[in-house]
Amino acid sequence: MKITAIDKLTDKIIAGLRIRRGDDVSYLLTAPLEELQVGARRLQDYFCGNHIDLCTIINGRSGRCGENCKYCAQAACHHTGIDEYPFLPKEEIIQNAKANQDAGANRFAIVTSGRALAGADFDKAIDTYKAMHDKLTIGLCASHGLLTREQFKRLRAAGVTSYHHNIETSRRFFPQICTSHTYQDRIDTIKIAQEEGFCVCSGGIIGMGETWEDRFDMAISLQELGIESIPINSLMAIPGTGLAQQPALPAADILRTIAIFRFINPTANIRLAAGRKLLPQNGATAFRAGASASITGNMLTTSGTTIKEDMELLHTLGLTNHNDDSTISCSTCGTH
Q1: Inter-residue contact 39 to 318 (CB < 8 Å)
Q2: 291 backbone dihedrals φ, ψ, rounded to 5°
Q3: Does pLDDT of 300 surpass 50?
Q4: What is the dihedral of CA 323, 327, 333, 336, to 10 degrees?
Q5: To which H or E segment does residue 55 belong?
Q6: Helix (H, G, I), strand (E, B), or coil: what is residue 294?
């Protein structure tokens, strides 16, 4: 049996090698997809076992965002017809979190629109997190934009252990999708969160017009930041946004991206997010070729997959969302 370059690279990564910025890994683009996926599966099996981490989100405050991210349905500069509402009542959020906990999700996040959650709304979020921490056992995650160090300290004290903040794309391409804040603003926020003890969940969106070089750069940047959970969103072009006319990515490109991210970030949870419906069998092939996690339930403004459906899918694939092997190193971001 012929030993390929992908086989050799997989063996080296298992032995401790890590791909670094500047390394020539162009063969990850030219290798047959199936060959690349076999290597990604070996890495996933070695570093993550058969555990698939499932997290859920609630859109805690919707719309009227002053930022100009081209992909976003919630930006005020776009006209998408989405529901707009202020911060949800505490009781509604807790009820939603408990339902997700009871359905088997590992983590629950409140996500809010806007550059940063502040003032009375941030106080409401803290009160809600404290109540969930007292009443529930599900891991708590937050996604509230560009927060200050003091805000992170308050979140940590309220029982939140994970913070979500995407870098979205490469540093080079970022100004093509957003000019109301910078790529460095996002990096700085991530570093403060890590300094305050949070496990950070950070990834991005593919299919916005970026190149493969941009995707490699994003994967390397996430590795350099030590990110433990990496959501990969495939753009679902929403009418009224700045990327409304962007064509959907072919499934093969998405699957190759997932596999490449596994090679570059072997110990992280590579997390399926928006755009799963673009994949064969709603992502089933990805779960056995690099993806060790998923957002489940509804996305922010696009429909996702129910927790029940995902639990059934994992069972069919011989996977579980409970990690009973303490020797597996793949991150259970936010549960520690």
Answers
A1: no
A2: -85, 120
A3: no
A4: 90
A5: strand 53-61
A6: strand
Would you state the pLDDT for residue 331? 64
pLDDT (0 to 100) of residue 303: 44
Three-state DSSP state, 330: coil
The model's pTM = 0.93
d(CA 236, CA 247): 9
Q: Tell the residue number behind the tokens 């100009």, with chain if given.
A: 68
Distance of CA 287 to the CA centre of its chain: 14
Give Cα separations from 5 to 8, 30, 112, 263 (angstroms).
5, 11, 44, 13
User: Which tokens go with 30?
Assistant: 């030219």
Within 13 Å of residue 132, how many CA atoms lie on the same side as its CB?
Answer: 34
Q: Are 269 and 53 a contacting pair, CB within 8 Å?
A: yes
Cα within 13 Å of Cα(304), Cβ side: 22
User: How does the average pLDDT of the chain come out, rounded?
Assistant: 91
Radius of gyration of the chain measured on its C-alpha atoms: 19
Rounded to a whole number, what is the largest CA-CA distance in the chain? 64
For the residues of 11-30, what is the DSSP string, one character each?
HHHHHT----TT---THHHH
Quick one: how many helices (H) and strands (E) in the chain?
A: 11, 9
Instruction: Give tens-digit pLDDT for 215-273.
Output: 999 999 999 999 999 999 999 888 888 888 999 999 999 999 999 999 999 999 999 99
Angle at the Cα of 66 (from 63 to 71), degrees rounded to 5? 70
In 33-142, alpha helices (H): 33-48, 90-103, 119-135
Q: How far is CA 136 from CA 53, 63, 94, 221, in A?
A: 18, 28, 9, 34
Burial of 120 (0-12, 13-18, 19+ CB in 10 A): exposed
The two three-digit tokens of residue 248, written as one number: 């959907």
The pLDDT tens digits of the residues spanning 238-252 come to: 888 888 899 999 999
Q: Residue 296 corresponds to which amino acid? A: T
Q: Quick one: average pLDDT of 77-95?
A: 85
Distance (Å, whole) CA 319 – CA 51: 6
